[in-house]
């Protein structure tokens, strides 16, 4: 992204969809996540300077505002905003931590959150993590995955990075046009003697073709690890979508539907696997003096776990608001010429984690022009997922990364725009977004 302004609204917005490539340099594993958007917004557009009444750029389009009031008057609307319950509700949790002085290492809140999430999500076992990426890396270790893994190029870069961190070669396979999920019909052709697993993503929370994927995995004796970072609370055919595959990995990053500031989890089917994962996330310790594996520190702290328990008390409301907002977008935009909306997933209770639209050739503007037009009105939609993972420097040399082999994913990356959706988005703010899109 063009480095317009290093301080462009990143953070919640930026990372929201999981750290858009634009704001999180793919090459640097170690780079700190950008600070929350509002605190580091571009000085020209940041709330602070705007409040001071300065920093209006004297460009002609400052006052264009044909659809709405001048953009400089309007509050910025980001693609997402983290859900935060009232602060006073969190204080008792903090008091309890201060009282018992257990800060981490599987303390009481950690145990309670694992239990509460199993119940809420309807799954058997959960191991909490400090973030979703570490959970992905550990999931691969837990199943001793090696060699080659078939995965999607249409995701947040951490999906494939988790493979590189394990010395595994990603093999990219194209996605289906209606779900933008891994196309099972193309998986088989990508299997080699080195293939040991498939890592699909439930993109935007839409379930993958889980049955077709499992059938291939069974035929070829492959493991399946779902990157379910977008799929918190999604139900498919009457059960949690997280029950499919050998493991599913969640992210509780600030920008996800359910957040613990930073956090993640592995959903696993049996107690033995959970135990191995619990060892791996704690340096490989089994007891005080026994280390059974070169584990990592992937633990979730008590502060994050306590916050998760509080978030769970608000999750139904948050999901409800998301559903209402999605419905309004669908009503308003489904008739707009040249815009393509992804069909609702069948037999699915969605979480509306994202609202993607595809800006096809019939629309009045190109995708990037619409993206810019929205920005001019202080609306920060995001191009998730552009660029494709397979286009980043550490992947593009792979034979499977050739764009010609990934036409559906390449098309989506060129056309997609994710619109603002989060519980605190007001009707008026959403209408602003809709007016700009309809008025182009
Ligand atoms: C957010 C996300 C991740 C990474 O999760 P973190 O908790 O930010 O480490 C991985 N995969 C996908 C698809 C994501 O959206």
Automatic annotation (TrEMBL):
- Keyword Membrane on entry: no
Q: Where's the active site on this chain?
A: 256
Positions of post-translational N6-(pyridoxal phosphate)lysine modification: 256
Locate the coiled-coil region(s) and give their ranges: none
Basic residues bias (residue ranges): 36-57
MF GO annotations: pyridoxal phosphate binding; transaminase activity
Return the InterPro entries for the record: DegT/StrS_aminotransferase, PyrdxlP-dep_Trfase, PyrdxlP-dep_Trfase_major
Going by the UniProt record, its keywords in alphabetical order are:
Aminotransferase, Pyridoxal phosphate, Transferase
- The segments labelled Disordered in the record are 1-72
- Work out whether the entry's keyword set contains Glycosyltransferase: no
Q: Which SUPFAM superfamilies match?
A: PLP-dependent transferases
- Taxonomy, superkingdom: Bacteria
Where does the secretion signal sit in this chain? none
One matching Pfam family is DegT_DnrJ_EryC1
Look up the record and give one Gene Ontology term from the biological process aspect: polysaccharide biosynthetic process
Gene3D superfamilies annotated for this entry?
Answer: Type I PLP-dependent aspartate aminotransferase-like (Major domain) (3.40.640.10)
What family, per the record?
Answer: Belongs to the DegT/DnrJ/EryC1 family.
Protein name, per record: DegT/DnrJ/EryC1/StrS family aminotransferase
